[in-house]
Amino acid sequence: MPQITTLLFDCDNTLVLSEELAFAACAEIINGICKGQQVDKTFTGESLISEFVGQNFRGMLGSLQQRYGIKLTPEELEHYVTAEEDAVIAKIKAEGRPCVGVMDQLDKLQAEGKYKLAVVSSSAKRRVLASIEKVDQSKYFPEDDVFSAATSLPTPTSKPDPAIYIHSMKVLGKKAEECVAIEDSKSGTSSGFRAGIKVLGYTGPYPADKKAEMTQVLKDAGAVLVMDDWSEFPAALAKIEAM
Q1: What's residue 180's pLDDT?
Q2: What pLDDT score was predicted for residue 179?
Q3: Which CATH number covers residue 34?
Q4: Of 46, 56, 80, 152, which is most buried with the most CB atoms under 10 A?
């Protein structure tokens, strides 16, 4: 049985409660794009979450162009990607908080020293670093151990593409069977699963009436176990290690 040596954490709504803040900032920018192109569609942060959770902003703009006939030049797309990063980082720096209970688990993991810890996110690296710095998690994740599908790859992509997990394992010198990924979204879970990694799902930030549904969504996407609270993490990891 391969030994688990490495834990790969998603960032948004897994380590840091940033998803709602990010989508609120996204909605303002996307609504401006829609208005400028006479597209009769208005988004809220909540409606974007339901439609695009787990995708980064570049991925969202690609989907929007396909679904609603929005046309952006490559220069315009890069302009909006940068503007969104700036807006989200400002919101996170003002209001970002760690996910409930995660700091206790990270403290224990660091003290134990048994596992390599890294962050694997769809979001731009600049945003991920701002998020973990705001909530005092930089001490667990040095910058070289933070991987971004939007920034760290030769060609930017987004989960559910497994490329960022494959890249992070290559850089860290790890094999899929040595790793466990912790993910809160369908696209993130699919990304880890498609990279051959055992995925532990996490439903903590979802509303109470959505938790059962999301548990099933994450299992269907490939999660081997799903936890609702970080206090469940040690037992869940032990179960995965025994698989």
Answers
A1: 98
A2: 98
A3: 1.10.150
A4: 56
